[in-house]
Design goal:
The strands form 5 sheets. This protein has a 6-stranded antiparallel β-sheet with strand order 13-12-9-10-11-14, sandwiched between helices. The protein has a 5-stranded parallel β-sheet with strand order 3-2-1-4-5, with helices on both faces. Strands 7-6-8 form a 3-stranded antiparallel β-sheet, with helices on one face. Among the domains are: about 130 residues, no CATH class; about 100 residues, Rossmann fold; about 70 residues, ATP-grasp fold, A domain (Dna Ligase, domain 1, 2-Layer Sandwich). It starts with a helix and ends with a helix. By secondary structure, the chain is α+β, with helices and mostly antiparallel strands. Helix 4 links the parallel strand 2 and strand 3. The protein contains 15 helices and 18 strands.
């Protein structure tokens, strides 16, 4: 398996994180009671009883009434790979049945075998593997025929698609995510900018809406100058993003960004913003119940990125000034409460390095890959909270009360990206199976994740690896799993 330079960053996390405990913000650190200390030596894998005992003692979420257990009878995970496994584990722990869908290329993937029921998605022979997971009609049909009361979209694919959420609603199926109105506002990043401006949240100078031609980009550049950045209006994850530093590159990069956005999200709309060089990327995790009541679960620092994709995420953002931290929390709550936001979401900001001035960039109206580090420091299972909210729970009924939520310790997630240095570090699928240390339960992700060439095609997300320094100790274990856990859990 060829591994690129991001691997080095991942392997450095263990050493770098040793310094974070000394620099945690005073406002986020609570005295550790001796009864809560764990007898886990550094670099030692925690056992299931130790993890369960520890997390139970830290948990602040106490759901009440009918939402404490089994919000639905059966839930479909309308996604693939590790997020589907994550969803199904939460459902199983809440005593709910699970339904998986998979494309032909994913027929050996763990998410297929981990569900109570699984169904292969049909597609045209000439269609891409991704297209099967974007087939709204087929997904809804499978859910209805097999008694799924709710659909969790995960992240990517249809997770931010208001048409999918509307189709679920029209079919009497609960969409485990924001409302259609929320998605219409926040899945389109240009309308999200407008909502932020109305809420008094500062934004990066950018186009008022989606752009239709390279000429419109040129007009923006004439007014604001270079560099600028093109972004997909209807998606995230670094897809459809291009930094323009030369006028002669505008036409080519506009077509490239639009094409990638179309293939990734089914919508080629892009918009333009002034490019802020070397900012800090801070995101605030929020959960709302659709009534205007929203809580934050503190923030994550996602500043270390590779090709506009996050490589290292840390919760909380330990060196952020407390005043700025509180300001970001307020902006996030103001924006989402005005919109009566429902379910989990992330409000993202760029912090200009020289001035420490924050700029809103987007709301991701879905769960994110890095939700795990927030779960680590807050003790809150975000996926279970999503399911309870979707079933009709208020924040109080879901056990989410702001004054009871705190961040303890530091959690770090590091992604190891597989790249081929012989091909200008292009994403690579890998050829070998590497054993990993696997466990299960709250706060667990596999220690090592691998690529397998005949299953993991180029459209797949690169493999990941997690290591954490949390509660003053090293924790080496995993949370969910990518494909083929049955092969590498040796």
């Amino acid at each position: 398996m060829k591994i690129g330079s991001a691997t080095v960053a991942g392997l450095c996390v263990l050493a770098a994180s040793a310094f974070t405990d000394a620099f945690q913000p005073a406002a986020l650190v609570k005295a550790r009671a001796s009864t809560r200390s764990l007898s886990i030596a550094p670099l030692q894998v925690a056992t299931e009883p130790e993890i369960a005992s520890h997390m139970d003692s830290e948990s602040v979420v106490v759901p009440v009434g009918k939402f404490a257990d089994k919000p639905f009878n059966k839930v479909m995970a309308a996604n693939r790979s590790e997020i589907s496994v994550r969803i199904m584990r939460a459902c199983t722990e809440l005593n709910m049945g699970t339904v998986a869908i998979y494309g032909y290329e994913d027929r050996y993937s763990q998410h297929r075998w981990g569900a109570d029921q699984s169904f292969m998605l049909e597609k045209e022979e000439s269609a891409t593997p991704i297209s099967a997971y974007l087939d709204i009609a087929q997904i809804i049909d499978i859910a209805k025929k097999n008694g799924a009361e709710a659909i969790h979209p995960g992240y990517g694919f249809l997770s931010e698609n208001p048409d999918f959420a509307q189709a679920c609603k029209d079919s009497g199926i609960e969409f485990v995510g924001p409302t259609v109105e929320n998605l219409n506002t926040f899945s389109d990043k240009t309308s999200a900018r407008a909502a932020a401006i109305e809420a008094g949240v500062p934004v990066v100078p950018g186009s008022a809406g989606a752009l239709n031609s390279a000429e419109e980009v040129e007009a923006f550049v004439e007014e604001y100058g270079l560099p600028v950045i093109l972004k997909a209006a209807m998606g995230g994850g670094g897809k459809g993003m291009r930094v323009i530093k030369k006028k002669e590159d505008i036409a080519e990069l506009f077509e490239s960004a639009s094409s990638e956005a179309l293939s990734s999200f089914g919508d080629g709309s892009v918009f333009v913003e002034k490019f802020i060089d070397r900012p800090r990327h801070i995101e605030v995790q929020i959960i709302g119940d659709g009534t205007g009541n929203v809580v934050h679960l503190y923030e994550r620092d996602c500043s270390v990125q590779r090709r506009h994709q996050k490589v290292i995420e840390m919760a909380p953002a330990w060196s952020l000034p407390d005043e700025l931290r509180a300001e970001l929390h307020k902006y996030a709550l103001d924006l989402t409460s005005r919109a009566n936001y429902k379910n989990a979401g992330t409000v993202e900001f760029l912090i200009e390095s020289a001035t420490m001035k924050p700029y809103f960039i987007e709301v991701n109206p879905r769960i994110q890959v890095e939700h795990t580090v927030t779960e680590e420091v807050t003790g809150i299972d975000i996926v279970k909270a999503q399911l309870r909210i979707a079933a009709g729970a208020t924040l109080e009924e879901a056990g989410l009360i702001q004054e009871n939520i705190s961040a303890r310790g530091v959690a770090i997630q590091s992604r190891v990206t597989t790249e081929n240095p012989e091909k200008d570090f292009a994403p690579d699928t890998g050829k070998y199976i590497i054993p990993s240390i696997c466990s299960t339960g709250f706060g667990i992700l596999p220690l090592l994740i691998i690529n397998v060439s005949y299953v993991r095609y180029n459209f797949c997300i690169p493999s990941l690896c997690w290591m954490r320094y949390s509660y003053g100790r090293y924790w080496i274990f995993g949370y969910d799993c990518y494909s083929l856990l049955r092969f590498y859990a040796l």
